[in-house]
Specification:
The structure holds two protein chains of two kinds.
Chain A (H helix, E strand, L loop, with lengths): L2 H37 L4 H16 L2 H18 L8 H27 L2 H9 L4 H31 L11 H12 L2 H30 L1 H5 L2
Chain B lengths: L11 H41 L4 H15 L3 H11 L9 H26 L3 H9 L4 H31 L11 H12 L3 H28 L9
Helix pairs in contact in B: 1-2, 1-4, 1-6, 1-7, 1-8, 2-4, 3-4, 4-6, 5-6, 6-8, 7-8
The chains are: A mainly alpha, B mainly alpha.
């Protein structure tokens, strides 16, 4: 087999990797905001749930979480009489989003807390409700600050998608392993795959930089 | 039975108690891989940091590209690469060693940035003073810059140590019997994945919480101005 023949199966795998990355990054971003804001909530229950979520998913390994969702959850479901067998793609996206969401939540919390206190005082003086102060004053200033760490997390997430190959999801890493079993041509295949991941990471970094400029555009609008 | 230890599946609690020693054997392997990977990351990272900071672009540019490449590609693929490709060139390492090498390689890209940030945070005047005193540059590095940089970089390095520990389960794909792999095998044989996998999660949580507390404690105890020499 010539190396060009590897490209078709590898590109099929790469497409699965791209989809996994996109879905889990979007879900992860939603979780980040929900639990990052939740951690700052004055309501103790919301705060406790957020802290618990963040600590559990940051404190354990992604592969443990993935295996737990895929292998252990059905057993737990059986015990309570529910069918909790997740298809690999659902377990994969869920584990990736929950994991990256916990890291993102800390970024969101940090960026909101970094907004100057005077901004909140001004919002209060102008009789803004806490909700208006958060969404109208704090978040627009905090979001551009979140973008550089979010960019790193997105690349981290892309790399982490390789682990879903271990629950037999046909992503790029899975196709590579399949091809290697078939052809024994490890050097060519894994070199190709490394460069494909590198290329995807460069594209993702460029996209995140564009998003960063987009959400920060109001900063340059006045001057 | 695993590692000569029997388990008892009569109920969940007894089962959990009977497999704990087996998981702890796996945990010991996890800790060994973490420490070895961390040492490799510290050494390779320092080399990369020095190369990236080299005055000549012929050296610094390739070092930067290599670092970016390592950072942007998954640990799993790097591990497969080392595991399958190195033997083709005559270098046959045990799976555990290959795994620790892959962990160290992946994290050297991160630690090199920590070294660089730590070195850059030291004022120019220190370098100038060393130069005025006619220190050779190697001497300046080991006796002036590093002692001041080390307290600054320790907290960040501690965080990467915890990250490495969380990445060790990836080594299970090359048959290293670390904790997750052990739990998976117990699950495969008893059809009860719930108990062993939850225990692995719990043990990880305890380890990361302890390690993070340790890093914070270290951070408050370290002299901020630099380590005294001799």
């Amino acid at each position: 087999m010539a190396w060009t023949e590897y490209l078709t199966p590898l590109l099929q795998g790469a497409w699965v990797t791209v989809q996994l990355t996109v879905y889990s990054t979007i879900f992860g971003a939603i979780l980040s905001f929900a639990f990052g804001i939740g951690k700052l909530s004055p309501n103790w229950l919301i705060k406790a749930v957020s802290v618990g979520y963040i600590e559990i998913f940051r404190g354990t390994s992604l592969l443990v979480q993935l295996f737990w969702l895929y292998f252990a959850l059905p057993v737990a479901g059986q015990a309570i009489g529910l069918d909790l067998r997740l298809p690999p793609v659902v377990a994969g996206v869920l584990a990736l989003s929950l994991n990256i969401g916990a890291y993102g939540a800390e970024v969101v919390r940090g960026a909101i807390q970094a907004v100057q206190k005077s901004q909140y005082e001004a919002a209060r003086a102008l009789n803004f409700t806490p909700r208006q102060a958060l969404f109208g004053v704090a978040l627009p200033q905090a979001i551009p600050e979140m973008m550089p760490p979010f960019g790193n997390l997105a690349v981290q997430n892309l790399k982490d998608t390789a682990l879903v190959s271990l629950i037999s999801l046909g992503d790029l890493a899975f196709r590579a392993e399949q091809l290697r079993n078939f052809t024994q041509d490890s050097t060519t295949i894994f070199t190709l795959v490394l460069f494909m991941y590198f290329g995807m990471a460069l594209v993702l970094t460029a996209l995140m930089k564009m998003l960063e400029r987009f959400v920060g555009r109001w900063r340059h609008a006045s001057n | 039975m695993l590692f000569g230890i029997e388990w008892d599946t009569s109920n969940e609690l007894i089962f959990a108690w009977s497999i704990l020693p087996i998981l702890l054997i796996g945990l010991w392997v996890t800790i060994q891989a973490t420490v070895l990977g961390f040492v490799v990351a510290l050494v390779l990272g320092l080399i990369l940091a020095v190369l990236k900071g080299a005055p000549s672009r012929i050296i610094s540019w390739p070092a930067n590209v290599i670092c970016e490449f390592i950072r942007d590609t998954p640990l799993l693929i790097q591990l497969f690469f080392l595991y399958y490709v190195l033997p083709e060139y005559g270098l046959v390492l045990p799976a555990f060693m290959t795994g620790a090498l892959a962990l160290g390689l992946q994290y050297s890209a991160y630690t090199s940035e920590v070294y660089r940030a730590g070195l850059q945070a030291i004022g120019r005047d220190q370098r100038e003073a060393a130069r005025a005193l006619n220190f050779p540059s190697a001497h300046t590095f080991t006796h002036v810059l590093l002692p001041q940089a080390i307290p600054r970089i320790i907290p960040a390095m501690g965080n990467y140590l915890v990250s490495i520990m969380k990445d060790v389960p990836v080594l299970s794909v090359v048959t290293v019997l670390e904790m997750l792999n052990v739990a998976k095998i117990i699950g495969d044989r008893t059809f009860d994945y719930m108990v062993p996998l939850s225990m692995v999660g719990g043990l990880y949580l305890i380890m990361t919480l302890v390690a993070s507390a340790g890093v914070r404690l270290l951070d408050t105890r370290l002299p901020k101005q630099g380590l005294p020499l001799k």
